[in-house]
Design a protein that fits this description.
The protein is an alpha/beta fold. The protein has two domains: 3-87 and 254-351, no CATH class; 94-246, Rossmann fold (3-Layer(aba) Sandwich), CATH 3.40.50.1820. The chain is 47% helix and 14% strand.
Length: 352
């Protein structure tokens, strides 16, 4: 396979994977929990609108199935996993809003915005127990507290808890400002987000748990929202009794390459030829950034608005290469039990 063919294959695969990533053809995301050895499962192909995304997800699965052998064990397994994901969907997810201050630390600033939250009271039995799933760097959907296989729902059913999900400021529908100007981003901070969580809990204690002397709140989160949950628990022990955190990023590192090392390890363990193909493909991309002609060719292959003119050390090129690699990394990280399928599909695509 000549160099140009490799990059064209990557381009085609990236387009397919990016489209799949928007609808999550694999049905589930699974990340191992560091506390309980249980996966935190999120069904992101579903939202409050429900059936539209389900239909899109099914169509992608059919397309994927047809692109491989129809009798393939891999394709059959993924279709079966999706079928399981469609079961036991709780429809009674309510959406509401709570008023928050734009600046929680300036008493003279009276400006407010509406912060979105969702609730699921399917299992609540007046126990005074509340589970709060914290939103992170994305919009919230009913999937966060709406599917029976989610460990949060399993625990809610067992202990009679009310379930809530709070959207992070500046994400989804929780927008303090109509426009995203650089000036407005000074209100997008961890401390402001933690203050929002505190205000929300205090508000719900007064409104929803008014008859309960001391409601018991347990926070849930993963990755960035997991860090928020851990920090909030540490700072507000009077308002919470626990935080269940999966992969909370509480120790930030600037030069963090261990994630990529683990990605390489998983690829080699699951499918060594596939790992080698991806390595050679990334090498081909990097080599093309070294010359003006190569950068111009990348601009054409990836249909860029403006081709690269800078040397390979430029931030634009570094971000470009990181984004290409992140497509593979994201699918490995979030695929869970589907990882064998994804690796085999990568290899199938490149090989053919």
């Amino acid at each position: 396979m000549i160099l140009n063919e490799i990059t064209k294959k990557i381009f085609s695969l990236l387009l397919l994977l990016l489209s799949c990533n928007n609808t999550n053809i694999f049905g589930t995301k699974v990340r191992k929990s560091s506390l309980h050895h249980l996966p935190t499962i999120e069904y992101d192909c579903f939202d409050q609108m429900g059936m539209d995304n389900i239909s899109m997800s099914q169509n992608y699965s059919i397309l994927l199935n047809n692109s491989m052998n129809k009798n393939s064990t891999i394709a059959n397994n993924i279709m079966q996993m999706q079928s399981e994901a469609f079961k036991n969907i709780y429809q009674e997810i309510k959406t509401d809003w709570v008023l928050q201050r734009i600046d929680n630390f300036n008493p003279d600033d009276k400006r407010e915005f509406k912060q979105r939250y969702m609730s699921n009271l399917e299992f609540y039995n007046n126990s005074g127990l509340a589970f709060l799933n914290l939103g992170g760097e994305d919009r919230i959907t009913g999937s966060k507290i709406g599917y029976a296989m989610n460990p949060l729902l399993i625990l809610a059913k067992k202990y009679g808890a009310a379930c809530f999900c709070l959207e992070h400021r500046f994400f989804g529908a929780s927008q303090p400002f109509e426009d995203h100007s650089i000036k407005s981003y000074k209100y997008l901070t961890i401390n402001q987000a933690l203050a929002d969580i505190k205000n929300f809990i205090v508000h719900m204690n007064e409104v929803f748990f008014s008859g309960i002397e001391k409601p018991r709140w347990i926070l849930f989160g993963s990755s960035y929202s997991g860090a928020l949950a851990a920090w909030f628990r540490e700072m507000n022990e009077d308002l919470t009794i626990a935080a269940i955190v999966s992969s909370g990023v509480v120790q930030a590192e600037v030069d963090y390459y261990d994630h990529t090392k683990n990605l390489e390890y998983v690829l080699k363990e699951e499918n060594a030829p596939c790992a080698e193909t991806i390595r050679l493909s990334m090498k081909a991309l990097i080599e093309k950034t070294y010359t003006a002609d190569g950068r111009a060719e990348l601009g054409k292959i990836f249909n860029m608005c403006e081709p690269f003119t800078e040397p390979p050390i430029s931030k634009d090129i570094q971000f470009f290469l990181a984004n290409v690699l992140s497509v593979f990394g994201s699918f490995i990280q979030y695929a869970g039990g589907c990882v064998n399928f994804i690796i085999c599909f990568f290899f199938f695509f490149f090989k053919n």
